[in-house]
TrEMBL record:
It comes from Salmo trutta (Brown trout). The chain crosses the membrane at residues 98-123, 149-172, 412-441, 461-487, 795-816. Keywords: Glycoprotein, Membrane, Signal, Transmembrane, Transmembrane helix. Residues 1-23 form the signal peptide. The gene is LOC115200366. GO terms for molecular function: cholesterol binding. This is Prominin-2-like. PANTHER family: PROMININ PROM PROTEIN (PTHR22730), PROMININ-2 (PTHR22730:SF6). Residues 531-552 are annotated as: Disordered. The keyword ATP-binding does not apply. Its main location: membrane. Belongs to the prominin family. It is a multi-pass membrane protein. One of its GO terms (cellular component) is microvillus membrane. It is found in: Cell projection, Microvillus membrane.
Length: 881
């Protein structure tokens, strides 16, 4: 075992580790930052509203009828053969359209029977005779009355049904015309949306790859700022220590400079004190001797000069030339602080120079990563075949949109015309019924009209309605069949096969729709020769094996699964099974892109050997200052000496006494001498004051030196020790700081890359390959074509066929009613008319019958009218007479 460390050694190791912990670069996570990736615009689609409303039961009834007419499934074989050979299999087509052939036969029968039946009924109407009913046939009158009322009621019901059918026919015919142009527009728009959306997938993938520039710029900025971060981290980590060290150095330098300056002032002041002391001492001795000679005068009054002596002996102040000579030059100490600051703040520049090669290598790896991402994205499955199929459909829609719109206008015009004819027939029936129906309930209601004009008008209207029905019935039924044929096939081939999913199965059999999914992009094949770093090449091996597997496995998407998946919010990537050709997880695996960056970042180092915050000459100057010996001066005795009075007697006061004594009469003989000595005393007093000033100055200098002498050695030792420790810590901790900074850069780079790859995953699955628009567009096609056009079209032939069906009983009931309304012609002369008693009784009887709603023939009503006219004429003759 090695030698044991002392307690001081363990403490040094602990403090070094603690310093390393303090100097660790704290990596600020940017997880909360949101990188401004480009927001990919999703295709906006809005569902087309169905305008079925309250007519949906009518539409459903038409669909039920079509189910019975054409119950056959979707004719995949017929359509496939037609698309491949452009020829139709007539026998299969006839079997498929068997229901419509039966409807055609029924229409032909209707077309032939209506004219024949109309002719027969017309012949019977015009050649029939009305049977007279006499009074003895009253037992059968009630039955005939109820029969006529029943026929009239049936005719009313038929007219109501015809009017209802016509109103519905007008409504749905108008809806077909109103929805045709918008429907074609919605179909073309939906095809354009699908084509544009599929085409934009490649463009959006390129945009996604271009967005790599955002994390690349962020990572590049982190890498390029690595040298600045390292330098700034070193500065921030040691700034406090260096400031404290330079503060201590500044204190030591201030002590040294202060000591040097005070020593110089000390010597200067000492010289002045000693020089003035000699002058003062000689002057006072001369003054004392002259004043003493004046004191010998017996008649004079002169102050006693015995106290005129100096007290402080400034010759005892020691010299400090030896200590001043031991002091370092001030010029060598003055620039140490600035030099230390410059040395410390030059560290970032050294870091930049040393990490520049590593930064260049990291940028190269980052560029290679971008190239690999771009080349891998070229393997994304292509949808060109699907785009071409949609484009062909869109071209077909655009080519046939105008003809379809024109033929629909023709259909609308013809339908409107025939519906107007049907409306005229119904109006004729209703008008005739309005005129003839009251006769059945109140036979005398038209008694004021002669020659039964209203009855003849009703009969004429019935005849016109019947004739129009026979004439236009063929056009009615022909229009019904034509609309039934086209509308029914449109429903069964398109709408019903869509709702039952048979159309999806037919599209699945078309191999050319999804053929491009099984082809690898040529751009990727051409990029297989690009070379990157070894780390990137190793990460491409899974993709190569996957490409080999894709050659033997073909994608077979299901259009039904695609549609229902898109409708439920599933991505097109999964609904088309693109994962069989493109491994999205391997493409978005961040480790294969980060390995090269991590390996390169580990080579980042910074060496600060030779860095010294305090140069050798500065260290030697501080050591010289420490050894100058200013602490060996006896400051206490020196301060006591400087505090001693300069002279024993106040010379200013003594001079004033001499002036006073010169004014005494007894001293008239020595008056001039006293005044002269007073002036001399005042001069010496100025020297005393200067000595006092110099002594006070000297005391301050001594006190300053005394203060510095107590701390200067400790300050120098502390400064040298702290600077040494800081320099050692810089050399030891910089590698840790560089490692932490490089690790932090990689962590931030990994966060940026992971955030980008997560955004790529979300963008591809839910932005680029979001196919909600596909389901909405297909639903819009179904709504615009089937619900808004085909359903009203089928409802139109149903309503018109309804009218054709009820037109038959309407004709029959109209002929019967016209026959019952036909009056019996009677010719009676007014001059020879005699009102017999029996006839008067019959009139009363008939009146009672009318009141009780019993049956009365038209002949009896006519006779009653003649009788009433005869009575009126007789009353007029009596009035004239």
């Amino acid at each position: 075992m090695g030698p044991r460390l002392s307690h001081g050694g363990w403490l040094w190791v602990f403090m070094s580790l603690l310093g390393a912990a303090d100097c660790t670069y704290h990596c600020l996570s940017s997880s909360s930052d949101t990188q401004p990736f480009l927001s990919l615009t999703q295709t906006q689609t809005w569902p087309v509203e169905s305008d079925g409303g309250c007519l949906k039961p009518l539409y459903n009834f038409a669909k039920l009828f079509l189910e019975s007419v054409q119950p056959n499934p979707f004719p995949e074989d017929i359509i496939s053969t037609a698309l491949k050979t452009e020829q139709l299999d007539i026998p299969q087509l006839v079997r498929y359209e068997a229901g419509y052939i039966v409807c055609l036969l029924l229409a032909v029968i209707y077309l032939l029977v209506m004219p024949v039946a109309g002719g027969v009924l017309a012949w019977g109407h015009f050649h029939s005779r009305k049977v007279e009913v006499n009074n003895t046939q009253s037992s059968s009158l009630a039955s005939l009355y109820h029969q006529d009322i029943g026929v009239a009621a049936c005719l009313v019901l038929v007219n109501i049904l015809l009017l209802t059918g016509l109103i519905l026919a007008f409504t749905v015919n108008s809806r077909v015309s109103e929805n045709m142009h918008p429907g074609l527009y919605h179909v073309e728009t939906s095809a354009r949306i699908i084509e544009d959306s599929l085409t934009s997938i490649t463009q959006k993938m390129k945009v996604i790859m271009d967005q790599y520039s955002i994390p690349k710029a962020k990572i590049s900025k982190e890498i390029n700022d690595a040298d600045n971060i390292i330098g700034a981290t070193i500065i921030s980590s040691f700034n406090t220590d260096v400031i404290e060290d330079l503060t201590d150095l500044s204190a030591s330098i201030e002590d040294a400079i202060g000591t040097f300056e005070n020593l110089q002032l000390y010597q200067t002041t000492r010289t002045d004190l000693q020089a003035n002391h000699t002058t003062l001492q000689n002057g006072i001795q001369g003054l004392q001797s002259r004043v003493e000679s004046l004191v010998k005068c017996p008649t004079c009054d002169v102050p006693n000069p015995s106290n005129l002596t100096t007290v402080a002996n400034y010759y005892l102040i020691p010299s400090v030339d030896d200590k001043l000579n031991d002091m370092p030059p001030v010029s060598s100490l003055a620039g140490l602080i600035e030099q230390g600051n410059l040395t410390f703040h030059a560290i970032p520049q050294k870091c930049s120079e040393q990490v520049a090669p590593t930064i260049a290598a990291l940028m190269s790896v980052l560029n290679e990563t971008q190239e690999e991402l771009l080349n891998t994205s070229h393997r994304f499955p292509s949808l060109e075949s699907l785009i071409e199929a949609v484009s062909d459909c869109r071209t077909t829609v655009r080519r046939f949109a105008d003809p379809v719109d024109y033929y629909d206008f023709v259909r609308w015009a013809v339908s409107l015309t025939l519906c107007m004819v049907m409306l005229v027939i119904v109006v004729l029936m209703v008008a005739a019924l309005s005129l003839g129906l009251p006769v059945f309930f109140y036979p005398t209601i038209y008694s004021t009209y002669q020659d039964a004009r209203l009855e003849h008008t009703a009969i004429g209207l019935y005849r016109a309605a019947v004739v129009a029905s026979f004439v236009f019935s063929g056009l009615f039924i022909l229009l019904v069949f034509i609309v039934l044929f086209f509308g029914g096939n449109a429903h069964t081939l398109g709408c019903r096969s869509w709702t039952h999913g048979q159309l999806f199965g037919f599209l699945d059999q078309q191999n050319n729709i999804f053929s491009s999914l099984n082809n690898i992009s040529q751009s990727f094949n051409s990029s297989q020769g690009f070379n990157t770093s070894q780390s990137l090449n190793t990460s491409q091996s899974p993709n190569i094996s996957q490409e080999t597997n894709s050659e033997t496995h073909q994608i077979k998407p299901s259009t039904s699964a695609i549609y229902h998946g898109c409708k439920s919010g599933q991505s097109l990537f999964h609904s088309m099974h693109m994962e069989q050709h493109f491994d999205l997880e391997d493409f978005l695996n961040a480790s294969k892109y980060l390995d090269g960056l991590n390996e390169t970042a580990q080579n980042m180092t910074v060496n600060l050997d030779g860095l010294k915050l305090l140069p050798d000459n500065g260290r030697q100057g501080l050591l010289s200052f420490k050894q100058c010996g200013i602490d060996s001066i006896n400051y206490h005795e020196l301060l006591l000496m400087l505090s001693t009075p300069v002279v024993k007697t106040d010379l200013g006061v003594f001079a004033d006494e001499l002036d006073k004594k010169s004014e005494v009469p007894a001293n008239a003989g020595i008056k001039e001498d006293l005044k002269k000595e007073a002036e001399t005393t005042r001069y010496l007093n100025t020297i005393v004051k200067q000595q006092q000033t110099n002594a006070a100055k000297m005391s301050q200098i001594v006190r300053a030196l005394k203060t510095i002498s107590t701390v200067y050695k400790a300050n120098v030792d502390k400064t040298l020790e702290s600077l040494t420790q800081t320099e050692v810590a810089l050399h030891n901790q910089v590698p840790y700081i560089v490692g932490n900074v490089s690790q932090c850069i990689m962590e931030k780079g990994e966060q940026s890359l992971l955030r980008y790859l997560d955004w790529v995953r979300h963008a591809i699955l839910y932005k680029v390959l979001d196919c909600h628009w596909l389901a909405v567009s297909l639903d819009n096609v179904y709504t615009a074509v089937c619900l808004n056009v085909v359903d009203p079209l089928n409802a139109f032939w149903l309503c018109l066929g309804w009218c054709c069906a009820f037109l038959v009983p309407g004709v029959i009931f109209s002929i019967y009613t016209a026959r019952r309304l036909k009056p019996e012609p009677t010719f009676i002369s007014k001059d020879t008319f005699i009102l017999p008693k029996k006839k008067t009784e019959n009139m009363k009887c008939h009146t009672e019958k009318a009141a009780s709603n019993n049956y009365m023939s038209l002949e009896e009503v006519h006779k009653m009218n003649m009788v009433s006219e005869y009575i009126k004429s007789k009353k007029c003759e009596d009035y004239d007479t």
